[in-house]
Write a structure and sequence with these properties.
By secondary structure, the protein is α+β, with helices and mostly antiparallel strands. The protein is built from 15 helices and 10 strands. The protein folds into 2 domains: 136 residues, Immunoglobulin-like; 285 residues, Tetratricopeptide repeat domain (Serine Threonine Protein Phosphatase 5, Tetratricopeptide repeat). The strands form 2 sheets. Strands 2, 3, 4, 6, 7 and 10 form a 6-stranded antiparallel β-sheet that branches. Strands 5-1-9-8 form a 4-stranded antiparallel β-sheet, with no helix packed on it.
Length: 440
């Protein structure tokens, strides 16, 4: 590739090779999960060039690698934006601006053929930047310049962009009038989308998300309609749709917030089911994966399910199996999930008398204990629970090995509970009857 040597200030009419290398510290606006992000270069009021939409990763630096050839006759100054998109499929509107930069070509091209960073204003306390490289092409290279998209500002595209802008203002200002204005614009867009409109799911999601944030801040109350909007959006984005995982994530968010406020177990049950569907759809290294598997999503669901009382019904046991699926080997919540499943199937054994349930309880109890070596803060609890299951199994099957193992476990639990320990009396009470059974 050959480059021209041209005196500063005489760039007019030249072709420039602009390389977009990376975006650093991409901000996440409005506390909403973005589907992706892209770079837009403004040509004039009706045209712009857009990079491909890229999925947001969990890294601090997002690699781009786009190269665009610009005619300075058409693009007299460099004016670009970084935008996040809330759809990976067909976009509704232009997304939300998270960075703007404008400068003369003199400022850019005087740097020579070296990469450089341009910085953007802080968004939610995050200072992002874009790494670029620019060079004037040799006049005989005859490179084709970029093709620019015409900006078709239909009413619903304008309303969507205004809605995003008003909602972003509400997130920072907490002024309800901005939320109401955002909802009004998002509702107007939804009213313009028929049942078979390809943009309807996006319009539903925009409106539902704005209302959900109002619900979280107690500025909106109608959580039933919010959940219904997310459900309809998910139905319009079935498995295989590029935005199917994101729609599951939004519905989980609504259900978990509803559970936080209402404490209705059915909402956290459904959240657990949806989490099992979501995680396999989120590749490692993506931002969605880091959020979905984080403290406020899957981890929160697991913790809340583990704190629910033991339920020996088929539905309750099914929930425990779902939670265990969310806790693969290496997950810190797996021992508790195993123990809760063990207790549930043991409770069903006491109700129905199926020895297979008790055998399953022992199996899960053994694994839970194996994952809690000496020094683990819950080892005494798992020792007592497994010992109890083995004692019940001895009472029904008469195998002395079960009872001997139970006594050994109770004795270890007792050693872990010195005088004054909250669980010491429990361990003593369990050990005496077991020892008595052994003597007889």
């Amino acid at each position: 590739m050959r480059y021209s040597t041209i005196m500063p200030g005489s760039w007019e009419g030249q072709l420039v090779r602009l390389e977009l290398i990376s975006v650093n510290n991409l901000p996440i606006p409005s506390k909403r999960m973005p589907a992706g992000f892209y770079v837009s270069i403004n040509v004039d009021s009706t045209r712009h060039w857009k990079s491909a939409i890229r999925v947001v990763s969990s890294d601090e630096s997002e690699m781009l690698g786009d190269i665009v050839i610009l005619s300075l006759r058409e693009v007299p100054e460099l004016s670009l934006e970084i935008r996040v998109s809330y759809e990976l499929g067909r976009m509704l509107g232009n997304g939300e601006v998270v960075g703007k930069f404008k400068t003369s070509w003199d400022e850019v091209l005087n740097r020579g053929n070296e990469s450089f960073e341009v910085s953007f204003s802080s968004v939610n306390g995050v200072h992002s930047s874009l790494t670029l490289k620019a060079a004037v092409l040799h006049p005989y290279d005859n490179q084709d310049s970029a093709l620019f998209d015409s900006i078709i500002e239909c009413e619903r595209s304008r309303d969507t962009d205004v809605g995003h802008d008003r909602f972003a203002t509400y997130v920072t200002s907490k002024t309800v009038s901005h939320l109401n204005d955002a909802v009004k614009h998002f509702k107007s867009v939804l009213d313009q989308c028929s049942a078979d409109d390809p943009h309807r799911a996006a319009a539903l999601t925009n409106l539902a998300w704005a209302r959900l944030q109002g619900y979280i801040r107690n500025d909106f109350q109608d959580i039933d309609s919010i959940t219904s909007l997310f459900r309809e959006a998910l139905a319009l984005r079935p498995q295989g749709h590029p935005d199917h995982p994101l729609s599951i994530h939004y519905l989980i968010s609504a259900l978990t917030w509803r559970f936080k406020k209402e404490r209705t177990a059915a909402h956290i049950h459904e959240s657990a089911e949806l989490c099992c569907k979501l995680l396999p759809l989120c590749p490692e290294g993506t931002f969605l994966r880091s959020i979905a598997a984080g403290a406020n999503d899957v981890d929160y669901v697991i913790r809340q399910c583990n704190d629910l009382p033991t339920d020996a019904s088929d539905e309750g046991i099914h929930l425990r199996r779902v939670v265990l699926e969310l806790c693969p080997l290496g997950n810190s919540y797996r021992p508790r999930a195993l123990d809760m499943l063990a207790q549930a199937v043991e409770a069903r054994f006491h109700q129905r008398g199926a020895i297979d349930d008790l055998a399953e309880s022992i199996e899960h109890g053994r694994e839970a204990l194996s994952l809690c070596p000496e020094g683990h803060f819950e080892r005494d609890m798992y020792l007592n629970n497994l010992a109890a299951s083995l004692t019940y199994h001895f009472n029904h099957q008469g195998n002395s090995d079960d009872l001997n193992e139970a006594i050994s476990l109770y004795e270890e639990a007792l050693r872990l509970c010195p005088v004054g320990h909250n669980s010491r009396i429990f361990s003593l009470d369990n050990l005496d009857p077991s020892a008595s059974c052994a003597r007889h």
